[in-house]
Specification:
InterPro entries: GH, GH_1_N_CS, Glyco_hydro_1, Glyco_hydro_1_beta-glucosidase. It comes from Micromonospora andamanensis. Helices cover 37% and strands 14% of the residues. It has 14 helices and 13 strands. Helix 8 runs antiparallel to helix 9 and helix 13 packs parallel to helix 14. The longest helix is centred in the middle third of the chain and has 21 residues. The protein binds ligand GBH. Ligand GBH binds next to loops.
């Protein structure tokens, strides 16, 4: 258990928790919500490890007030949630579902009533199925549909959402969703998936303009990053690591800051039209950084379809997901972003950071999760160290408030500060919740509103 007191964070530092719509809301067929690619994927046999779906998940759609009360009890100053595109536009475009917009309005108002800043992500992977049927993110039109959807949401909530996040982890939606097929929509296009990268970024840029027209709140994107460690020391290993870095850390960031796409990946970029890169490079106010762990890379075997090989990073403790735990990787990553993007880099907020463990209530009904406490303690200290290094980090959101539906892993991975019994829906704060409440209470430096 960590004992040293947590250092203070700068005045106004944002303390938050993150979730996403399909992972917690449930109510998949309720009040006019349309189907998304994740409904389709989860209901396809063999795709989800435990055969489950997000049909009910945490039933947050009905229990949102209880969940906001949990956030208030924790003392967070912000909540990052995502809006389900098919809940507000069941066909992805055209006919609006007023009940869907009403739900997010109730949620936002409940947050504000508790002094919690609403931080809304517009796309956390749940594309409306009718848009997928029209080609999904392979189709350039989807970028325009996304901007219309952003306009619709901002027209209703633009006066109350305190930070907009256009896309969540477009790299994961590209790689797992469209290159390897582990996530919805299950396409296996490998490097031919490049148009999905470009159209997501184009959608981001068009959405930034749409949001600016309706709302004075700052705008961000949430990218996932992983510092790359070379395994072996040959020139080929070093080159493979650089290629992986271009793919994982630069593909969705270089264009945001006016540097265009990395060329060393050899993508066919015919999807990129004149003017697109200017749309994509529209200034943003915050860079959202999702961090879980570093990645170890070496040169591929002869005949491999990929220009790198990922290998397990040894010598670190591991989570229940078998991901290595390395807080120093977060400080290293923040330094890398700061050095590479320099004056073009806006303030950073850590929009996701967290870990899965096999947490269960004990005989007295407590849920002890000392490994999560150690994880969060280490990563918060890494953020504090990065701030001392000169990186402008203005917030930290834990993934996640609740145990929830972890995509292809179904209900088998628990990331919450709050335990959820998926039979009854019962919420039980874990020991990490009590720990974080103390950290926030003793380190936040602005008065409670
Ligand atoms: C995020 O994705 C998502 O935004 C969120 O919805 C999700 O619930 C959460 O994280 C937890 O998964 O191969 O051992 O090096 C995270 C993306 C991709 C991060 C895989 C860690 C590699 C682990 N992740 N990654 S490893």
């Amino acid at each position: 258990m960590p004992t040293a007191p947590m250092p203070e964070f700068p005045t106004g530092f944002r303390w938050g928790v993150s979730t996403s719509a399909y992972q917690i809301e449930g109510a998949a067929g309720t009040d006019g919500r349309g189907p998304s690619i994740w409904d389709t994927f989860a209901h396809t046999p063999g795709r989800i490890i435990d055969g489950s779906s997000g049909d009910v998940a945490c039933d947050h759609y009905h229990r949102y007030a209880e969940d906001v009360a949990l956030m208030a009890g924790l003392g967070v100053t912000a909540y990052r949630f995502s809006i389900s595109w098919p809940r507000v536009l069941p066909s992805g475009t055209g006919q609006v579902n007023p009940a869907g917009l009403d739900f997010y309005e109730r949620l936002v108002d409940e947050l504000l009533a508790h002094g919690i800043d609403p931080v809304a992500t517009l796309f956390h992977w749940d594309l409306p199925q009718p848009l997928e049927d029209a080609g999904g993110w392979l189709n350039r039109d989807t970028a325009h549909r996304f901007a219309e959807y952003a306009d619709l949401v901002a027209a209703r909530l633009g006066d109350r959402v305190r930070l907009w996040i256009t896309l969540n982890e477009p790299f994961i939606h590209l790689s797992l969703g469209h290159a390897t097929g582990v996530h919805a929509p299950g396409r296996m296009l490998l490097f031919d998936a490049f148009p999905v990268a470009h159209h997501q970024l184009l959608g981001h840029g068009l959405a930034v303009a749409a949001l600016r027209a309706r709302s004075t709140s700052p705008v961000a994107i949430a990218n996932n990053y992983s510092p790359v460690r070379v395994v072996g020391g040959s020139e080929a290993d070093v080159a493979a690591a650089a290629t992986y870095e271009a793919l994982h850390n630069r593909l969705f960031t270089d264009p945001l800051f006016g540097r265009g796409y990395p060329t060393e990946l050899g993508f066919d970029t015919t999807a990129v039209r004149d003017g697109d890169l200017d749309v994509i490079a529209a200034p943003i106010d915050v860079l959202g950084v999702n961090y879980y762990n570093p990645t170890a890379v070496r040169a591929p075997e002869e005949g491999s379809p990929l220009p790198f090989e990922l290998v397990p990073l040894t010598g670190y403790p591991r989570t229940a997901f078998d991901w290595p735990v390395d807080p120093a990787g977060l400080r290293e990553l923040l330094g890398w972003l700061h050095d590479r993007y320099r004056t073009t880099l806006p303030p950073i907020q850590i929009t996701e950071s967290g870990c899965a463990y096999d947490d269960a209530p004990d005989a007295d009904g407590w849920v002890p999760d000392p490994d999560r406490i150690a994880y969060l303690d280490g990563h918060l200290r890494a953020v504090r160290a990065a701030i001392d290094d000169g990186v402008d980090v203005t917030g930290y959101f834990v993934w996640s408030l609740l145990d929830n539906w972890e995509w292809a892993e179904g209900f088998t991975k628990r990331f919450g500060l709050v335990h959820v019994d998926f039979e009854t829906g019962q919420r039980t704060p874990k020991s990490s919740y009590a720990w974080l409440r103390e950290v926030i209470a003793t380190t936040r430096r602005e008065p409670r509103r």
